[in-house]
Design brief:
mainly alpha; Reverse transcriptase domain-containing protein; 113 residues; RNA-directed DNA polymerase; transferase; single chain
């Protein structure tokens, strides 16, 4: 899952539970609760400090730090290889095949410099 996908899912979750207007501290605490042990360990390793005028570390700070962290984890070569290996399955509708291709090509960064 791409980072923008899970961030969008998180925003939807916050909105659905009416946390979107909650204090920044509450949103950050909710993220820490939901993110799992591995991300919690990495979050502690970031050693983030609150922005000026903020009571605590904001969710925006946390997400920006994870964006930087996961940027190094993208492997365009592997994504391109995976994309090129996609074949239409026997009996698969073309629209389903096309949808899989469209989703896979996003990870390849084709057309970006």
């Amino acid at each position: 899952m791409r980072s923008c996908d899970w961030k969008e899912d998180l925003e939807d979750y916050l909105e659905a539970l009416r946390y979107s207007e909650a204090p920044k501290k509450t949103k950050t605490a909710l993220f820490r609760h939901l993110c799992g042990e591995e991300l919690k360990k990495q979050l502690r390793a970031f050693d983030l400090k609150p922005n000026d005028g903020c009571e605590g570390v904001t969710l925006q700070q946390v997400l920006q730090e994870f964006d930087k962290y996961f940027l190094d984890c993208q492997n365009e070569i592997f994504a391109s290889f995976t994309f090129l290996e996609i074949k239409q399955e026997q009996g698969e509708k073309f629209t389903d095949y096309y949808s899989r291709l469209r989703n896979a090509v996003v990870e390849c960064n084709y057309g970006e410099s």
